[in-house]
Amino acid sequence: MNYIFKKENRTEASLNNFNAEHIRWMKFILRQSKKVGEIELPISAVILDERGRCIGRGSNKRNVNSDPLGHAELIALRQASFMKNDWRFNECSLITILEPCTMCASALIQARMGRVIYGALDEKRGGLGGSIDLSKHKSSHHKMEVIGGILEKECRSEIKLWFKKLRNQI
Ligand SMILES: [Zn+2]
Fold first, then answer.
1. Would you say residue 27 has pLDDT above 80?
2. Which of 12, 21, 38, 73 is the catalytic position?
3. 145 flagged as catalytic
4. What is the DSSP letter of 88?
């Protein structure tokens, strides 16, 4: 399934603003996720500034740090706001392999993230279209561009594989 084409309103703008660099970053975070995957759900995220430079990076640290807020997106956000010395990210993009959950989606809206690019859709917990689309909710006063389904097959199989391994360990 190619999720880009399901979001008619966003399709044109999304494709114009999406480029090979984003694919390169997606491949990078997929590799990062494989490393994280030995102990955590394999999720990684990067934040790029308006010139495409990486200003924040995060991997899921929920188990390692016993931290319910230890999601890759939030860790990357914190690092990027330190780098930027600003809490606003209107000109920035966040790239992650799985659709952000509702907590991270809310944080990204609060941070005024300009664009969110993700791989696999999360129909259970996704906060940007999979389960609920908080970017379109009336409580969201920020217009965010959301592009889903980038390298979806690779991203989805990485997550599926992790759950399969987990089941085999129990
Ligand atoms: Zn999250």
1. yes
2. 73
3. no
4. -
